[in-house]
Write a structure and sequence with these properties.
This protein is α/β, with parallel strands linked by helices. It has a domain of about 170 residues: Rossmann fold (3-Layer(aba) Sandwich), CATH 3.40.50. About 50% of the residues lie in helices and about 10% in strands. The chain is built from twelve helices and five strands. α3 crosses α4 and α5 packs across α7. It binds adenosine-5'-diphosphate (ADP) and shikimate-3-phosphate. The site of shikimate-3-phosphate has 10 residues, from loops. It catalyses: shikimate + ATP = 3-phosphoshikimate + ADP + H(+). Its EC number is 2.7.1.71. It comes from Punica granatum (Pomegranate). Pathway: Metabolic intermediate biosynthesis; chorismate biosynthesis; chorismate from D-erythrose 4-phosphate and phosphoenolpyruvate: step 5/7.
């Protein structure tokens, strides 16, 4: 059964050309690889290895070790003990820094870091998000993104950088709310500058035919943000980079480093966990 379901979507890492399964294929077919005694196949071996490494890095159910005698506990240590193993799910628009800030956070907390896009790519045998979109379509990608989040929600002590569109499916919130959800709120202008600088290679929803790079990206982000704004607001914690800049008296938000944002995320998570939930969003 496992082999039959997956034969259509297995992609050799050399070619990574997805052959999309029929639309009637239930997305939950990914779970067939969790069955015991499945027939060996190269895909399942890769998937199991990936999950094994992720779980091992998570050092399940062991609380973070106390700092060595004489060493002061860091903010990361403090928040880690308040979290009691709960994972962090970072949400936000493309380019908001979920990956960059997420890696810093994971180190501070002693958590493992997982990028949900990379997880889907791994499950798809190495095909890029871009290729999955172009050959199988967005809804196919969304099904696998949901399955990835379901699985990741079962694992403790992770910082998960989600894809920007993960917030649009209500079921994904049920998965992400197993941990603490954090929205990185960054002005569209800054996002467009960042993405135009690195290109839209891995962001198929921002690729348009005409216009300069910045304008194309800005218009794409603007349209998406109109649809997604209310969904991002469902996060447990919001960290507004604009408000952080104001509170630090920094004029240009591009001067706010990923490390400064990661520290602010820790501060806001701690407030949230203590029931003193005030985001960095300030009154006008
Ligand atoms: N605070 C920041 N200041 C400047 N550039 C940033 C900042 N955070 C992220 N970037 C840059 O923006 C780009 C997108 O960041 P990334 O972490 O990949 O975003 P996401 O995972 O949310 O799509 C990267 O090139 C990254 O180096
Ligand atoms: O906003 C979106 O719909 C998407 C964001 C991307 O992730 P990043 O937010 O990490 O760029 C990736 O999941 C895909 O291109 C779709």
């Amino acid at each position: 059964m496992c082999v039959r379901v997956w034969v259509g979507v297995y992609i050799s890492p050399d070619h990574a050309q997805p052959t999309c399964p029929s639309p009637s294929l239930p997305p939950a077919s990914l779970s067939c690889f969790q069955q015991k005694n499945e027939a060996p196949c190269s895909f399942s071996v890769r998937l199991i290895r990936f999950i094994f490494i992720t779980v091992r890095r998570s050092s399940i159910s062991s609380p973070p070790p106390p700092p060595p005698a004489g060493k002061k506990a860091t903010k990361g240590d403090e928040v880690s003990s308040c979290l009691d193993g709960r994972s962090i799910f970072l949400v936000g628009m493309m380019g908001s820094g979920k990956t960059t800030v997420g890696k810093i956070l994971s180190e501070a907390l002693g958590y493992s870091f997982v990028d949900s896009d990379k997880y889907v790519e791994q499950v798809m045998g190495g095909a890029s998000v871009d290729r999955i979109f172009s050959q199988c379509g967005e809804s196919f990608f969304r099904d696998y993104e949901s399955e990835a989040l379901r699985r990741l929600s079962l694992m403790p002590q992770q910082v998960v950088a989600t894809g920007g569109g993960a917030v649009i499916r209500p079921i994904n919130w049920e998965y992400m709310k197993q941990g603490v959800t954090v929205y990185l709120d960054v002005p569209l202008d800054a996002l467009a500058k960042r993405i135009a600088a690195v290109g839209t290679e891995s962001r198929p929803l921002l690729r348009f035919e005409s216009g300069d790079a910045y304008t194309k990206v800005f218009v794409g982000l603007f349209t998406l943000s109109k649809k997604r704004g209310p969904s991002y607001a469902s996060a447990d914690v919001t960290v507004s980079v604009l408000d952080l800049a104001r509170s630090l008296s920094v004029e240009d938000i591009s001067d706010i480093t990923p490390t400064a944002i990661a520290i602010e995320v820790l501060v806001q998570i701690e407030k949230y966990l203590r029931g003193d939930n005030v985001s960095t969003r300030m009154l006008p």
